Amino acid sequence: MERLLFLLAVLQLLAATAAVYKQWIPNTNFETASNWDKGRVPCARDVVHFEKDKVVSVFVRSPHALTDMYLPLSGEFVLAAGAAFTAFDGSWDPGCDSGGTVRFADAEHHAWFDPTLWQDVLPGGELKAAGPVFSVDEERVPCRYDDVIFQPQTSFRVDTDSSQPVIHLRSVSVMGQELNTPSSWAAYLGGPSAPLQFHGNGTLQVTGTGCPDKSGCACGNTLDGPRICAALLRASGRQCPEPACQSPLQPLGHCCGVCGATINLDFTPDFDLQKYQDRLVQELLSQPKYAGVQMAISKVHKAQTFLGVLPRGATPLIQIVLVDDRAGGQAGTAAEQLAADIMESIAQHGEALGISSGKMEVAAGSTASGQVGSHPVSRITAGTVMGLLFSLLLLGGILFLYRKGKLRSLQMLTLERRHQKISRFSTSTLCTMQVRQRPDGVTRAGGRQHCPGGTTTPQPPQPLTSLLVGFKSHITPGGI
Ligand SMILES: *[C@@H]1O[C@H](CO)[C@@H](O)[C@H](O)[C@H]1NC(C)=O
User: Fold this and answer.
1) What is its main location (predicted)?
2) Whether this model's pTM surpasses 0.70
3) Residues near 262 by beta carbon (within 8 Å), at least 6 away in sequence
4) Contact at 8 Å (CB) between 119 and 127?
């Protein structure tokens, strides 16, 4: 019996949450055209300039003939098999008639906490198909239990400046190797490349542990929220876009106000975030009438105050953010309808799903009309109340429904219900850890193997040379 319970506990832990893989987008590869000030890769008649005092790690994939190259004082070239630099012998090079000075662009400013520099990928590194689910801005940057991937065959440089001294992660993959134990990561940090790849005052720490709670885990980027929003707004022109609705909602962890709806759920230990998200996508979001509606769902910590003044710690809750692509006076109305549908389904099935209460806020409709609590809003609210009354009749178990009135133009609808504990063990979504082994795996320095991942199987050695630049060098005809 004990053993069975233990097994069930383990299965439940594995089922906790699906792993999230986030991939760093920029690279400092030699062959990436945007890494050069002229927007093209240097060719034979060019003189290549790396800034003297800028630290770089540069991956070189193929052979290059160059006229001259000025190297930085401190840096590294990681040469793939077959890659090399040779001096241009003066012969004709098609497509490179002009020649000139080509400078390597500044890689210093790419910040870890810039949400535009990350993308969600599958465990193998393939881009995730764009679906109806998005992340609030703070969760677009790797969260505490996420897996981070730096693409194989790339070099990179990341500014880890953070408001927290330590940035926790489940794992980090570099050059096709997953580092998923504290010791393998520490060994990597002690190696030659890490100091060239990471700079800034935040220290990355690999824990090897995923989110242990099936009701979800908060992302953990709240302290760096202002940094994340500053980076995001820098990328989009320093200002949030003009919202199409009056008094847009301010979801926790999101930088700009949104039109649509948010739902905050209180949950019981039975709540399963991944399952609930799948259920919402399958049953509601995939309906044709909700095409163009996007949903973010995650556990967040909402700061509590006592009597509205004194801070009283933070309580975890599940935040659902619904936005849509409707324009003008219709902005947010589809999201609002979906929110009403979700509230209705909570009234019916909330108890069995581990949801003890839900609160909806809406901001939809036109700014042009200037009407506060305009028509669509009240119409939908009436619909919601009707739906809830229907559920009341159906279940006969809802305790009380109370309308909090209008707060600016948005409406709040609170539905509370007592919950009964129902024990369930979920075994359906077993999370399998994959050993990453890729044919293009590259190891450092002449086939010497470094497999700090513990679970990573050694890859067949590939010829690779790493040129460490410790002083100012200058390649002249004759090659290196
Ligand atoms: C890191 O430096 C930034 C300034 O770039 C500062 O705001 C932050 O508090 C520092 N973080 C730590 C943990 O010292």
Assistant:
1) membrane
2) yes
3) 249, 251, 319, 320, 321, 322, 339, 360, 361
4) yes
The pLDDT value recorded for residue 371 is 31
- For the chain, which ranges sit under pLDDT 50? 5-16, 367-480
Indicate the angle between helix axes 333-353 and 375-395, nearest 10 degrees. Answer: 20
- Written as six digits, the tokens of 10 are 């383990």
CA 120 to ligand 1 centroid distance, Å: 27
pLDDT digits (tens, 9 = 90+) for 236-289: 888 898 888 988 999 999 999 999 999 999 999 999 999 999 999 999 999 999
3-state secondary structure of 412: strand
CA of 258 to the centre of ligand 1 (A): 30
Q: Is the CB of 165 under 6 A from ligand 1?
A: yes
Residue position matching structure tokens 């609210």: 381
pLDDT tens digits, residue range 451-478? 222 222 233 333 333 444 333 333 333 3
* Ligand 1 center–CA 202 separation, angstroms: 8
The pLDDT assigned to 399 comes to 27
CA 182/CA 5 separation, integer angstroms: 29
In 15-167, which ranges are continuous DSSP H helix?
Answer: none
What does the pLDDT read at residue 125? 82
The two most distant CA atoms of the chain are separated, in Å, by: 88
Report yes or no: 331 and 365 within 8 Å, Cβ to Cβ.
Answer: yes
Decide: 68 in ligand 1 pocket, CB within 6 A. Answer: no
* Ligand 1 neighbour 163 (Cβ under 6 A): yes
Burial of 450 (0-12, 13-18, 19+ CB in 10 A): middle
Contact 319, 264 (CB under 8 A): yes
